[in-house]
């Protein structure tokens, strides 16, 4: 399960990430609302944990933007405010649950597990055009043809497939696949895009990884 934490209190965000990673979740953190909004709108996360009080773009706005795009991510709002009106605002913005700070780690985990159970069964594959990616075996499949992807090829391909044809910048791919603190550069993305194009061609896929200069990559089905 993939979780995005959007929280401008770095210490709290990092402590929640550590807690969830120990429980086996795939967790990413954005330390400001605007970055969090950009990542959340990609639609690749099972759960969003949003702080309410952030400068510029707050948690309410991130939730609204996600719901406007009809994305299915569950949303858990975190706030230091316990007033009824604030809880109502959060729920109306699209939140599925509202947790008031400070909270116990056990309460947070219980909320997350309940929300993810509500979301339904885990998806076993993602598909675009005539091609699918088996998430359990990392096999890229087109009809009777299949090829296994390396770990990084798998991560890049899955991200592109889950974006559903939306454009992904090199910076976003780097952060999503290699991580915020990685020393990887944009050339790494270009190299793995090249690998994936060859593997797609080898199985007869009708998927094309299209590049837009200075904007990034997206999938097209020919």
UniProtKB/TrEMBL annotation:
Residue ranges: DNA binding? 123-221
What are the recorded Gene Ontology BP terms?
A: regulation of DNA-templated transcription
Q: Tell me the keywords, alphabetical order.
A: DNA-binding, Phosphoprotein, Transcription, Transcription regulation, Two-component regulatory system
Q: Which InterPro entries match?
A: CheY-like_superfamily (IPR011006), OmpR/PhoB-type_DNA-bd (IPR001867), Sig_transdc_resp-reg_C-effctor (IPR016032), Sig_transdc_resp-reg_receiver (IPR001789), WalR-like (IPR039420), WH-like_DNA-bd_sf (IPR036388)
Q: In the record, which positions carry 4-aspartylphosphate?
A: 51
Please list the residue ranges annotated as the Response regulatory domain: 2-116
Annotated GO molecular function terms are: phosphorelay response regulator activity; transcription cis-regulatory region binding
**A Pfam family hit:** Trans_reg_C
Is Transcription one of the keywords? yes
Q: State the Gene3D superfamilies in the record.
A: 3.40.50.2300, 6.10.250.690, Winged helix-like DNA-binding domain superfamily/Winged helix DNA-binding domain (1.10.10.10)
- A GO CC term? protein-DNA complex
Q: Which domain of life is it from?
A: Bacteria
**The OmpR/PhoB-type domain covers which part of the protein?**
123-221
- Its biological purpose: May play the central regulatory role in sporulation. It may be an element of the effector pathway responsible for the activation of sporulation genes in response to nutritional stress. Spo0A may act in concert with spo0H (a sigma factor) to control the expression of some genes that are critical to the sporulation process.
Q: Give the matching PANTHER family.
A: REGULATOR OF RPOS
Q: What is this protein called?
A: Stage 0 sporulation protein A homolog
Q: Which organism is it from?
A: Intestinimonas butyriciproducens
Native organism taxonomy: Bacteria, Bacillati, Bacillota, Clostridia, Eubacteriales
